[in-house]
Amino acid sequence: MSRLRVLAFSDVALPEGSGGVERQIEEVYGRWVAAGDAEVLLVALGDQSLPRRDVRRGVRIVRASQLNLGRLTGMQATLSWGVWPLAFKAARVFRPDVVHAHTLFYASSPAAAAIARREDLPLALTAHIGSLDALPGPQRAASRLYESTIGRALVRQADVTICVGESVRRHIEGLGGREPHLRVVPNGVDRGRFHPGPRQLIERERGAGEPLIIVSAGRLIFNKGHHAVIDAVRALDEDGLPVELRIAGDGPMRDELEQRAADLTARGVVTFLGQRDDIEDVVRDADVFVRASMTESMPMGVLEGMATGLAVVASDVGSTREIVEDGRTGLLVRPEQPVDLVEALRCLASDAALRRELGRNAREATERFSWDASAAGTLEAVHEAVRLHRARSAASEPVR
């Protein structure tokens, strides 16, 4: 395969965010550049604290200003008028072979599609979200309206849509995606960075009064369900169970979550750690990893908790079931069902042997998820987008 010039689009890029999309971008594109497989220019969004131009792991980044709607919606939502002129300038100067956009819901994705359409370039689209059914009514209605219009148009234009899990592929099929334009490429996990520490390897019972340490990591937005974890920990604390919750990450709901947990924070039951570069150390210092999401693709945080050897409790949404086998590598709970979450945590708090067994099985299960495989699969899919686009263009040319 020849070396590609890839014009990529994502609303968020490291180091601004702590979510799965930006982690995937850095791991995949960084490997392409290091191997000489591609040259990547990433068009992203950012506030004034971030440089307008940047380089990370050989990937050049240009940023447009944004209007962050996260505080208004509680979700990852932005607007950007500046991304359009920046995108067209980048295409004119960079002269890409292919356009690669991330996430149907990002403000930069329609701009990516417009560039591909105007310049007659192949469009690869990576879909990161599956079913929206577990969202509350207003968020669900708004998200479905967007998907049925703009999202559907993006999927239909894309030469290839890369889905990070089978559940995401089925969701994209519902928006009109069809073979041979769909590829499933799972996320990866760095098992060297996320590995068990003494807390996971030393078999011991918790001492009397020693708290069960729970970590909930990810962007602080409504659909990640941090509020549900706080409520579950409150219920356990009120029952007299020693428990400590550490929330790692940042986002538009931080103030609201801090207010929700104010009394627990004052007593040291809940701690907000903010965005952490040493998230692997945060996870290793815990007993249980919780992800109480209402929407997911293939949750990277869950993979990282599993690779660390933690017992994992996760909502049964998106492709979580494809990585967590309920009762063997973790515990799955129904989204937005507080009783389920409380009972799962109570079970793990009282059964150290079960925690160790789930953690060992989880660590073993992550052997099949690697960033090398994810980078290779994504590169192959992007090359396939180029091939399909050229074949379609050739077929549409008039016979001379």
Q: What would you note in describing this structure?
A:
Helices cover 42% and strands 18% of the residues. The protein has 400 residues and is α/β, with parallel strands linked by helices. The strands form three sheets. Strands 3-4-2-1-7-8-9-10 form an eight-stranded mixed beta sheet, with helices on both faces. Strand 14, helix 12 and strand 15 form a beta-alpha-beta unit. The longest helix is centred in the C-terminal third of the chain and has 26 residues.
Spans of at least 5 consecutive residues whose pLDDT stays below 50 are none
Structural class estimated from helices and strands: alpha/beta
Distance between termini?
Answer: 30 Å
Q: Could you tell me the mean pLDDT?
A: 90
Radius of gyration: 21 Å
Number of β-strand runs: 16
Strand order, sheet with most strands: 3-4-2-1-7-8-9-10
Largest sheet: 8 strands, mixed
Large-scale geometry: globular
What topology emerges from the helices and strands here?
Elements lengths: L3 E6 L10 H16 L2 E8 L7 E4 L2 E6 L2 E2 L1 H4 L4 E2 L3 H12 L3 E5 L5 H12 L3 E5 L9 H21 L2 E4 L2 H8 L8 E3 L13 H4 L10 E6 L8 H13 L4 E6 L5 H7 L1 H5 L3 E5 L4 H6 L3 E4 L8 H8 L3 E5 L15 E3 L4 H13 L1 H14 L5 H26 L4
Parallel strand pairs: 1-2, 1-7, 2-4, 7-8, 8-9, 9-10, 11-12, 11-14, 12-13, 14-15, 15-16
Antiparallel strand pairs: 3-4, 5-6
Helix pairs in contact: 1-15, 3-4, 8-13
